[in-house]
Amino acid sequence: MITLSVPTRQRIDLVDITSQVQQEVDKCGVVDGLLSIYVPHTTCGVTINESADPDVAEDIKMQLSKLVPHEGGYRHYEDNADSHIKTSIIGSSETVFIENGKLVMGTWQGIFLCDFDGPRTRKVYLKFIKE
């Protein structure tokens, strides 16, 4: 298993980690198989979405903040209940195919670490399953 450390810059931040993940694919030498990406945090997740236009990430952040506002009268005492809820919506793992040593992704797709309680340095676990 490989661990990436990913710094975030703000409370709600989507960080494109696609190139870091591909670098790890290159290093490990997996030609064909699967990659499981897992984020071990309750206030941070991972998603695959458009990475060509940075406005998409901003729109995701904006709409999640509207859907689950920071100040929502929550019972959780740590002032980050919204972060837990947003993470439950996004999810904590993704699976990506690897073919010919490359991530199999759509033209515009990228892998994003989604921090909802930053800024922090977050862990991303990568597990390769060779064919």
How does the SSE layout of this entry go?
Elements (H helix, E strand, L loop, with lengths): L1 E6 L5 E4 L1 H11 L4 E6 L5 E7 L3 H14 L13 H10 L2 E7 L2 E2 L5 E7 L5 E10 L1
Antiparallel strand pairs: 1-8, 2-7, 3-5, 3-8, 4-7, 5-6
Summarize the model shown:
With 131 residues, the chain is α+β, with helices and mostly antiparallel strands. Helices cover 27% and strands 37% of the residues. The longest helix is centred in the middle third of the chain and has 14 residues, at 54-67.
Explain this structure.
With 131 residues, the protein is an alpha+beta fold. It has a single domain, classed as Jelly Rolls, CATH 2.60.120.460. 27% of the residues lie in helices and 37% in strands. It has 3 helices and 8 strands. The strands form 2 sheets. A 5-stranded antiparallel sheet has the order 1-8-3-5-6, with helices on one face. The chain has a 3-stranded antiparallel sheet with strand order 2-7-4, with helices on both faces. Strand 5 (93-99) and strand 6 (102-103) form a beta hairpin. The protein is elongated. The two termini are 16 Å apart. The relative contact order is 0.39.
